[in-house]
Amino acid sequence: MLLCAACVFAFPFSAGAAERIVMPHVMPDDPRHTYVISLLRLALDKTVPEYGDYDLVHHPIPTEQSRSLELVAEGGGIDVVWTMTSIERERDLLPVRIPLQKGLLGYRIFLIRKGRADVFRRVRSLDELRRFVAGQGHDWPDTRILRHNGLRVRTCPRYSLCFGMLAERRFDFFPRGVNEPWGEMREHPGMPFCVEKTILLRYPAPLYFFVNRGNPGLAKRIDTGLRMALADGSFDELFYNHPQMRQVFQKVGFKERRIFDLENPFLPPETPLDDASMWIDLDKLP
């Protein structure tokens, strides 16, 4: 999710010169990232005639999201990152304001401890959910959103510590993006977790690509490619049919869940909320 000073160019590359683009260190088959990386490649592929070839590579060192964002802002080794937007992130970094998951990041389901499913199944309203404590990262935009809506939140100093805190009953549920919890359970096989099946939180929360503010050329290239994909239908084709996304749609069971809508007052005013082509259409889900 970050940017490299040596790779920063504010203009398209000449023919024959491959633009080296560094993204965060993620495992190639990590289900949380495979779709977004495919979308990034789609956008870059569509702009090869105008901008030239590219070489998309991973940063060699794993970093927490907060550090990745710092490295992008500092020009410290990562060129592009994908993360939920906020006023602060759009101030510090240069956003490409096209929701990569069509707003799906704002649809949240829960990791809970095994044996607690019946407790959450009986929750019929947002007021009832407020009796429980959610866990979130201390610097995540979601934390403020949940608290603004009256939910109780205990924060984790690092993402990796959230799972132990849930297992140790430091909080009751861990809201996750709909593409996240199954992979996280596989990564923590010894922990007593399950995915809660009856509740869905929903709030506007676009996931964007961000680059360093000194690299408008890369931002323009990605924006151009994504808009080309929206116009020719290849964006929606990838989103609704990518194996990772189809698996998510099938597992979540949107129609079987009670949806609790939350306000998000922390969105930048430039958020394209009125452009329906950029947001998920639940009627298109399989």
Number of strands: 12
CATH architecture of the largest domain: 3-Layer(aba) Sandwich
Number of helices: 12
Distance between the termini: 30 Å
Question: How do the helices and strands line up, and which of them pair or pack?
Answer:
Blueprint: E1 19-23, H1 34-46, H2 48-51, E2 54-58, H3 65-74, E3 80-84, H4 87-92, E4 94-96, E5 107-113, H5 117-121, H6 126-129, E6 133-137, H7 141-148, E7 152-156, H8 162-167, E8 174-177, H9 181-187, E9 193-195, E10 199-202, E11 207-211, H10 216-232, H11 234-241, H12 243-252, E12 258-261
Parallel strand pairs: 1-2, 6-7, 10-12
Antiparallel strand pairs: 3-11, 4-11, 5-8, 5-9, 5-10
How do you describe this structure in short?
This is Solute-binding protein family 3/N-terminal domain-containing protein. By secondary structure, this protein is α/β, with parallel strands linked by helices.
